[in-house]
Amino acid sequence: MRRALVAGNWKMNGTRAGIAALLDGIKRGLSADLETEIAVCPPFVYLSDVLAALESSTVAVGAQNVSEHEGGAFTGEIAPAMLADLGCRFAIVGHSERRALFAEDDATVARKFVAAQAAGLVPILCVGELLEEREQGVTEAVVGRQLDAVLELAGPQALDSAVIAYEPVWAIGTGKTATPAQAQEVHAFIRGRIAAHDAKIADRLRILYGGSVKAANAGELFASADIDGGLIGGASLEAGEFLSICAVAR
Q: What span, in angstroms and rounded, lies between the C-alpha atoms of 210 and 233?
């Protein structure tokens, strides 16, 4: 049985006061019998504050990005070992905003995946297609290419210590959401792609959905056989909404 995971990607949002209030709301609202694993991914500058605030809780912390380099003369970059040293558990790699706005290609994402894992972090590998790619009927080709870059560099066994997040680019921050059938279709494709290499790893692999997930639509999405939780954007910035999403991800 795969344990559901809900991870909040706060993106470039927050202040120290606002984040303290958000975390207080999350901690106060946590149910002792909640079966879902929960993580939050704040901006780099707030990681230490968030880790300290969540030290005695069951909520894990992840980074929104990570360098492919171990260290050295890379001004502004954050090495994977630094994140692990702080106490981070997860690192998001390959988010569509990194791919589109910062020109990260599949090969770069694969190197970041490997670097994060080598430092003991659990990569959350984001994959997904643009609207025009879906309309052209090439969703599986695009997602398959993104997966293959990691499989070729890291090998299928690396996915035993990783998470994949399917995020259709056309549904991120747009208010549009893939239907449960559309999301399940791609999740099943991803699992099948991995199963072609190793069926047991594919069965254990957690595949999250991301793209305008809210409490109102989370239950229907998470009921799908191959959707194991969510990578949540805007809805993770409000404690009640985020916890409601976590509660239905069983």
A: 8
Of 158, 41, 166, 72, whose CA–CA distance to 111 is shortest? 158
0.90 exceeded by the pTM? yes
* Residue where the block lists tokens 């880790």: 51
**Catalytic residue flag (residue 167):** yes
Two tokens, residue 219 = 């239950």
d(CA 106, CA 68): 12
With beta carbons less than 8 A apart as the criterion, state whether 56 and 23 touch.
no
The token duo for 83 is 């994140």
Of the candidates 37, 68, 97, 167, the residue annotated as catalytic is 167
- Rounded to an integer, the average pLDDT of 37-42 is 98
Tell me whether residue 197 is one of the annotated catalytic residues. no
CB 49 within 8 A of CB 82: no
Provide the β-strand partners of residue 124.
92, 163
Report the C-alpha gap between 82 and 70 in whole angstroms. Answer: 9
- Given 37, 68, 95, 104, which residue is catalytic? 95
DSSP β-ladder status, 229-232 and 5-9: parallel
Span 131-149, pLDDT tens digits: 999 999 999 999 999 999 9
